[in-house]
Structure formats: structure tokens, C-alpha cells
TrEMBL record:
The lineage of its organism: Bacteria, Bacillati, Actinomycetota, Actinomycetes, Kitasatosporales. InterPro entries: GH. GO terms for molecular function: hydrolase activity. Keywords: Hydrolase. This is Glycosyl hydrolase.
Length: 414
């Protein structure tokens, strides 16, 4: 399903205020309702929810009915507050912690992307999850998993290696299972920025921009942007918009929707006193990107400091505190969401990326890279740039569909 929207949506990745994602072990619907009430009070219209895979499918042939019921009750509770819900399946990886079922690890070690038994189990799980929610009007659709590609290579300490071709096959099979379970909903997959920036990463820009109902981008300035340019720099404020526009170089549909599925203001890379300004700058820049499906902030509530061993920045990423009080980032996002947003006009100037079709040479697009700096230079000069692969520069119907009238190369910029 390709969902072309004219008005971007505003939402939040739901992190429960009590127990973080371990809340599935002590499911408390009233606490969830209170959390969702505090989210809805910000004027947001959707959440992204995260079942923990090993709790929902502890054995390859056991998907717990009680867990499915709890997920359904969460989605129904969201409907009470006029919130739609997108659900991630294979959790997978969250906030530096891996959550993988025991039937894939240690004595049962099998590759997450290639083992036939594991693939059967994953597909059945995703199909079952989607089917359990298919009749709920506020269910948006499935994301295969949260940055599940991070299991496929470095820097993961114990990666499950896969080739780009096998990665594409895996994605298509998982998305087909989601579609089987809930036909016609918005099903997609989400990679972390290694897909765009790391030369040897098996999940490629072409996978992200061509497989699934929309392109998901996750924008984090602790990836080198803040370290090289500063947390309050022009590049940091434009990073999310850059990723949105970078993704369009590989998209075959000139109006493929792009979902800014994760973006946040991580301290100390973005100092707390600058977080509200960073939020407005980042969101405003993203809204200036055509074909933006929506913006989903990371995350709803802070992590309770009673929980140990999180990286320091993870504790304070919430729009709301653990007692559900809005922070400056929350009031800023709410104010922007309440404003009127006309569809962004086409970006007529395109930076030409001289890259192979499937993007194995990606590091020049990363912070500090040639194309990253060229894009930021154009943006700073007011050009509202987008990107295009050099192989598409003579395709006049494609250029017309995207509204591109000017092509700029690195040579043009000197």
C-alpha cells in the first residue's frame, strides 16, 4: 500500500512511563491510559508501539494469546484518545538492548535472516500480530522491526551476516506476511542510518526506498553530526530533512511517502537548554520536504532512572517526564503540530549523487562526507535541495514528476 497524504501526521514513539518496555510483564491498562492521555493532550494523532518479541513468541511455535490480547487492549485504549497506532514486530533492538528469543541464540544459534526455521517463525509471528489487529480502525499497519538491520553486521558484537540480495528477500517475505495478516494497511520496514551511510552494510538505500509502503528514516545527530558540526549547528538542524531528501534519490516512485519515524534531541549532543529550539528547527525543516507522511518523535516518556545500564542519553529523550509532565520539547512539538501545514512545494534543485544504483559506496553521504557537506552548503544558501542519482539525470519524465529543474554537481560547487 502506498499512502499519499497531503497533511503530515504528528506522533510519538510510545515508551511507557512505568517499567519502560518491560511493562508487558506487568501489564497495567490504567497506567497506559494515563500515558496515552498525556500524549493526546499534546495534540498528537498517533503512536508507534513496541511488543517485545521474546515475550510474545517465546518458542518458535508459541505466540502467546495473552500477549496478543494485551496488544489489542493497548490499541483499543489509544482509540479512546483518538490516537492511531503503528506496531513494530521484531523487537529486536531498543535503546541499546537486544531482545531476541532463546530459540535463535546460544545453543539454538541460527541466522536471523537466512535460517529457514527462523524465517518461518518470524513470518508466522508478523502475520499473526497483524491479523490480531486487522479489524481495528485505528491500526495503521506494521513495521517489520525496530532497526532490525543492526543485527546484520558491524558494529554489532555478534552479527548475523547476510548478503544484500538475501536481505531484500527477507524484507519482502516479512512484509508479505504483514500484508497477509492485515491487507491494505501501511506496512514498511525501518533501518538505522547505516543503510544510508555505511559502505558495507547489507541493507541498502534501494531496500529502504523501494520495498514496503513508505520509506522510514531515523534521524539521530549523535551519529557524528553533532560531534563534527555542533549540536546547535545548521547541519544538526537540517539532518532529518537531509535524510528525507537523500532517500528520494533511490526511490522509483517520484512521490513515495517518507516517514520520519524517529527523531529526537539527545543530550548532551543537543544541550537541554537548546532542545526546544532544536525541535522547532528540525521539525520545520522536515515539514519543508514534499511527500512527508509524518513525524514521530522519540520518545513519549523519559526512562525511569531506577532502571539500570541505559546509555545516559536514553534516560531523558522523552517529551514528558516519568510523572507525565511536558518538557520544553513537548510544548514546542505541540505548538508546531497545532499550526497549519500546507503541502511542501517541490524542491527544484537536485544534488547529483554519482553513486552506484544500490549504493554500496555510501560513506560520502555521511556527516563529514562530500555529498553531506554539499547538501548543507546548498541548503544554507537557500536552495531547498533534494538529491538524485546520476543514472536518473536524463530521465525527463522522472525529473518532471519530481519537479526538478536544476541539477547541481560537486564540480559546480567547486
Amino acid at each position: 500500500m502506498t499512502n499519499h497524504r497531503t497533511t503530515p501526521r504528528f506522533g510519538v514513539n510510545y515508551t511507557p512511563s512505568q517499567g519502560w518496555f518491560h511493562h508487558w510483564l506487568d501489564f497495567d491498562l490504567e497506567a497506559i491510559r494515563a500515558d496515552l492521555d498525556s500524549v493526546a493532550a499534546l495534540g498528537l494523532d498517533h503512536i508507534r508501539a513496541f511488543p517485545l518479541w521474546p515475550l510474545f513468541q517465546p518458542n518458535r511455535t508459541l505466540i502467546r494469546p495473552q500477549a496478543l490480547d494485551q496488544l489489542g487492549r493497548l490499541v483499543d485504549a489509544a482509540a479512546e484518545f483518538a490516537l492511531d497506532v503503528a506496531v513494530d514486530g521484531l523487537q529486536g533492538h531498543l535503546s541499546s538492548f537486544d531482545f531476541l528469543p532463546s530459540w535463535t541464540r546460544t545453543w539454538h544459534r541460527r541466522n536471523l535472516f537466512t535460517d529457514p526455521g527462523v524465517l518461518d517463525g518470524q513470518a508466522t509471528y508478523l502475520r499473526t500480530l497483524a491479523a490480531s489487529l486487522a479489524d481495528r480502525p485505528n491500526f495503521l499497519g506494521m513495521t517489520v522491526g525496530n532497526e532490525f538491520d543492526q543485527f546484520s553486521g558491524d558494529p554489532h558484537p555478534d552479527p548475523d551476516r547476510v548478503t544484500p540480495d538475501r536481505a531484500a528477500s527477507w524484507l519482502r517475505r516479512m512484509l508479505a506476511a504483514c500484508e497477509d495478516g492485515a491487507p491494505g494497511r501501511l506496512h514498511l520496514h525501518a533501518a538505522y542510518d547505516a543503510a544510508w551511510y555505511r559502505d558495507d552494510h547489507p541493507f541498502t538505500p534501494a531496500h529502504a526506498a523501494r520495498i514496503g509502503g513508505a520509506t522510514a528514516v531515523h534521524s539521530w545527530v549523535f551519529n557524528g553530526t553533532a560531534q563534527q558540526y555542533g549540536g546547535d549547528s545548521f547541519a544538526a538542524g537540517q539532518h532529518a530533512a537531509y535524510l528525507i531528501e537523500l532517500s528520494k534519490a533511490w526511490a522509483q516512485d517520484p512521490h513515495r511517502p517518507v516517514w520520519l519515524q524517529e527523531v529526537g534531541a539527545p543530550a548532551p549532543h543537543v544541550p537541554p537548554g537548546q532542545a526546544a529550539a532544536f525541535t522547532r528547527t528540525t521539525v520545520t525543516a522536515a515539514l519543508d520536504c514534499p511527500d512527508l507522511w509524518g513525524i514521530t518523535w522519540w520518545c513519549s516518556h523519559d526512562v525511569d532512572r531506577a532502571l539500570a545500564d541505559f546509555p545516559e542519553l536514553e534516560y531523558t529523550l522523552g517529551l514528558l517526564t516519568t510523572d507525565r509532565h511536558p518538557k520544553p520539547t513537548a510544548t514546542t512539538l505541540a505548538a508546531v503540530a497545532a499550526e497549519s501545514h500546507a503541502p511542501a512545494p517541490p524542491r527544484t534543485t537536485a544534488l547529483v549523487l554519482d553513486l552506484p544504483e544500490h549504493g554500496p559506496e555510501r560513506s560520502d553521504c555521511a556527516p563529514g562526507g562530500r555529498w553531506f557537506d554539499a547538501f548543507m552548503r546548498l541548503a544554507a544558501d537557500g536552495a531547498r535541495p533534494t538529491t538524485i542519482l546520476s543514472t536518473h539525470t536524463t530521465d525527463k519524465p522522472y525529473l518532471t514528476a519530481r519537479g526538478i529543474t536544476e541539477l547541481v554537481t560537486l564540480d559546480d560547487l567547486g
